[in-house]
Structure formats: structure tokens, C-alpha cells
Design brief:
230 residues; mainly alpha; three-stranded parallel beta sheet; 7 helices; 39% helix; 10% strand
Length: 230
């Protein structure tokens, strides 16, 4: 596949800033989704598949990036997702021979296998190393837990700072909502909304997942300017 200067810049953003460019027009300032831009059931499923592929490579989507990807059309998500996976593989020096779940999206969407793979991989990472990044703020300082059943990682600092409630009460008697995928889960009485990954009993010798952020306007130009100034 022929690469362009633009492709090289996107790869550099991933390598240097752990940020991902989303096609212009999908998002407004600070990651706000354009009205009427989505999400659709197809792109929501596609993002789950992409999440699984990235987790398998040791990477996570932060909430603003996930929302921006979900707002894309299916075709734009397919293009952006394949480019992101190729860049991550190049960054890791990977030579991957398996048939990826995202390869035939949007013609085929292996949602359930991807969902199961993602939750399994994240739970394994968290069990081996509790100091994983929060998918809301990308920080690793505060305690992080995986929400059940989506396994999105959230830190106590972000939950405590939310102005809008993410649950009906501390015991989640009626409902709770994931601040990462915005899915609301109805409950029938008190329950613990967190997956038991054994993280509180784990050591801290396992690998740390890399949190990918949404590239800000001008990031590529700034990196190019920095290179030219050397």
C-alpha cells in the first residue's frame, strides 16, 4: 500500500502523542458530536470490534476518541479503523497473520466475538496490572475499575468529578450508565456494577495498556513544524 505525507504525519501523531486523527467534520470542538451525525447501530458495533482489535494489541480508546469514531459513517469508520490498526501494528513491529475481526467491516461485523474478546483481554490486563489508564481521562494515578458488562475502565477521580450522575444511587438500585460508551443499564435492586477482575489481589508487574486520545486540530501541523525547526 502506497503511503503519503499525510499518512506519515498520522503515524507520527500516534507514535509521539498517542493521538488519532478522525476525519474532519465528524466532531466539533472538545469532541462534541455533530448533530445528526450518528451514531448508527452499524458503527456502534464496528467500534466494539475495533476496540477488541486494539485491546488485543495493548491499546484503548479514550471516551472522546470513541465518540468521534462512533459518529462516523460505516465506510469512514472502516477506513479510519483499518488505518489505525495498520499504524499500531507498524508501531509495535507486529507481523500479524490471523484474520482480524475488523477486516471485513462493514460488510460483516463480528460483534459478539469482539465483545467477548475485548472484555476478556481488558480483565486479564487489569488482573495482572491494576495501574491501567482510565478511558475517560487517560490518567493512571487513581484507582481504576472495569464497568460490568462493557469492561470500560474508569477511575475514581473521574466518577467523583462528574457533574451529571452516572448512577441512580451508590448501590445502583435502578440504573447505572457507562460514561465511556454512554450505555445505560437498568437494574432490579442493589448490585455491584464493577467486574471482579482480581485487580485488588494482583501485583503490579504486568504491562500497561496505552490510551489513545482524539487528535486536536493543528496537532499534525505542530508536529511537522517541530520537525522542520530541528
Amino acid at each position: 500500500m502506497t503511503t503519503t505525507t499525510h499518512d506519515d504525519l498520522l503515524g507520527m501523531l500516534l507514535r509521539r502523542r498517542q493521538s488519532v486523527y478522525v476525519p474532519e467534520g465528524a466532531v466539533l470542538e472538545e469532541g462534541a458530536v455533530l448533530e445528526g451525525a450518528g451514531p448508527s447501530a452499524v458503527t456502534e458495533a464496528g467500534v466494539v470490534v475495533l476496540e477488541a482489535e486494539l485491546a488485543d494489541r495493548g491499546h484503548l480508546l479514550t471516551a472522546p476518541l470513541r465518540r468521534a469514531l462512533t459518529a462516523l459513517s460505516a465506510d469512514d469508520l472502516a477506513t479510519t479503523g483499518r488505518k489505525l490498526l495498520a499504524d499500531v501494528d507498524a508501531l509495535m513491529g507486529s507481523d500479524r497473520h490471523h484474520a482480524p475481526l475488523f477486516a471485513r467491516f462493514p460488510a460483516e461485523t463480528a460483534f459478539q466475538p469482539a465483545y467477548e474478546r475485548y472484555t476478556t483481554v481488558v480483565a486479564e490486563y487489569l488482573a495482572a496490572q491494576p495501574h491501567q489508564p482510565c478511558m475517560n481521562c487517560a490518567g493512571t494515578k487513581a484507582s481504576v475499575r472495569a464497568l460490568d458488562p462493557c469492561a470500560h475502565l474508569l477511575c475514581d477521580d473521574c466518577l467523583g468529578a462528574k457533574t451529571a450522575p452516572w448512577n441512580c444511587c451508590d448501590q445502583c438500585c435502578e440504573w447505572y450508565e457507562c460514561p465511556i460508551c454512554d450505555k445505560r443499564y437498568e437494574t432490579e435492586g442493589p448490585l455491584d456494577p464493577w467486574l471482579d477482575t482480581g485487580a485488588d489481589r494482583a501485583g503490579d508487574g504486568g504491562p500497561v495498556l496505552r490510551a489513545l486520545s482524539l487528535g486536536a486540530p493543528g496537532d499534525a501541523a505542530a508536529e511537522l513544524g517541530a520537525l522542520l525547526a530541528r
